[in-house]
Amino acid sequence: MLKDATAIVGIGETVFAKNLEPSELELACQAVKAALDDAGIQPSEVDALSSYTMEETLEFEVARNLGMGDLTFFSQVGYGGGAGCATIGHLAMAVATGVANVAVAWRSRKRSDPRKRVWAQVSPRVTDHWKYSRPWGLIRPVDEVAMFWRRYMHEYGATRDHLANVALACRRHANRNPRAFMHRRPLTRDEYMRARWICEPLCLFDNCLESDGALAVVIVRAERAKDCRQPPAYIHAWSQGLTRQHQNMTNYHSDNPLQGAAWAAARNLWRQADLRPGDVKVAQLYDAFTPLIPFCLEAYGFCGPGEGAAFTEGGALELGGRLPINTAGGSLSEAYIHGMNLITEGVRQIRGTSTAQVPNADVCLVTSAYVVPTSAVLLRKG
Amino acid sequence: MIENIPLPSTDDPIDAPYWDAARRGELVVQACGACGKRRFPPRPMCPACQSFEHTWERVSGQGRVWSFAFPHPPLIPAFQQIAPYNVIIVELAEDPALRIVGNLVASADAPINGVDPATIKIGMPVRVVFHRMTEDVTLARWVAA
Q: Checking DSSP bridges between strand A212-221 and strand B125-132, what pairing results, if any?
């Protein structure tokens, strides 16, 4: 019903930098306008919007600035970085069913200012599930992820070199991308190994960037996609995911904490798809932290449980390797805008316009954040 | 410094008994009043049988380290000052599926940055001790057993 029924036909981005001057609203407007120009579609035609619940710029602000007409579908998806691919999925459903016709997903965030660190906003008393972890000093997402990685190292013999493989792959891809924060900053394995701890066993280079920027994508039905300016990136399948007994971020209480919410998204994604993991030529895997890559490789079926670390060896994740990932540099080395830049890079790979283009990239998997209720989408060439 | 530490609310009816017990120096977990299944963290309903009935079961306080990590700066001020320190997750002896976040300390009131990191190992046996933070907040911590 949904398979290949819709496509992403426009992508737009602002510059990615620290301390951008325009407001998040203005950046959102820039990105949405750029995406619509890329699609060759007028703002007045847009009737559906979707973003993250953490987005501070609301639908009506985007709509009235861009001069949009009536909207008939708008959604916000929860759980931070878990939301990105789901905004695409929600809009695909709205457009495929005819509830709406021209849809825009966007994310605009100024996160480079240290005062914007979500984890640093301390409230009087903790009343939600975090009351069972924050009082003991498990404060930041990196601390919460470090717990999983330490356990994973113990169970499967993974090492720092495996995480370095991830960091180096993303950095090398960023070095080819003039828009990436780390475009001119190569990283060596030695520098990785000597970097300071942020939460041992995770060092500085295991953590994503802190960035300002905005991005948007335009989605229409397949019939219209053929007439747009750019080669369409068809939405072949998508899913959200929240596993049994999952606890947001601090997912330590389920039967297998090392198989997080992504496993539910993955099972449902592949159930719907005509394609298999072996058909995927390139992947954009959510990389707020390097361990999330081996975790994603396992969840999405590129290898078995416990094999994700070893999968990274021998340059497998780099252009020319078995499964190039995060080909614009990812959250680790391009910019961290809650994974929206992984979606736009996925579209570029399908179009053939990436700065690290994988030959014959006709299928691209994009995933949203691991360790939270999440989502994923499979894009394909027409 | 206490005011920077994120303290738990202790007066929510659904988990107040957990915090009451901690003040008494006891580690308790919920057990379903209908089917007996234990659960942690506390919540209103049993996932196995959907009963709202529950009791609070005192557990032995014995467990093993399931995982650990050492936060370094940048952190919120109270923790920035004492970093690096350890945070551990303990699986309970009664039921390894029950896992609790805590700190490994040399003794109940010793600092959380006081244990040599090299001595912390997954699988090491630990037992619970209690540290009073404020009038209503006492935190379970762990010492090597």
A: unpaired
Q: What's the pLDDT tens digit per position in A102-125?
A: 999 999 999 998 888 888 886 779
Q: Strand A202-203 vs strand A197-200: parallel, antiparallel, or unpaired?
A: antiparallel
Q: How many domains does chain A have?
A: 1
Q: Which domain holds residue A265?
A: 6-109+209-377
Picking from B7, B41, B72, the nearest residue to A199 by CB comes out as: B72
Q: Is A79 among the catalytic positions? A: no
- Least confident range from A106-110, A129-133, B56-60, B76-80: namely B76-80
Nearest in space to A32 (alpha carbons), one of A217, A213, A225, A179: A217
- ipTM > 0.85? yes
Through-space distance between the first and last CA atoms of chain A, rounded to whole angstroms: 17
Report cis status (omega within 30 of 0) of the bond before A291: no
Question: Does any domain span residue A332?
Answer: yes
Closest Cβ–Cβ partner in B71, B100, B139 for A143:
B71
Q: What are A337-346's pLDDT values in tens digits?
A: 999 999 999 9
Residue among A52, A156, A336, A370 flagged as catalytic: A336
Of residues A152, A286, A300, A370, which has the active-site annotation? A286
Does A145 fall in a domain? no
Overall pTM surpassing 0.95 (yes/no): yes
Does the domain made of B60-145 have the CATH classification 2.60.120? no
Structure tokens at A142: 């990196």
Q: What is the CATH number of the domain that holds A34?
A: 3.40.47.10
In a domain, A183, yes or no: no
CB contact under 8 A, B71 and A201: no
Domain residue ranges of chain B, discontinuous segments joined by +: 10-58, 60-145
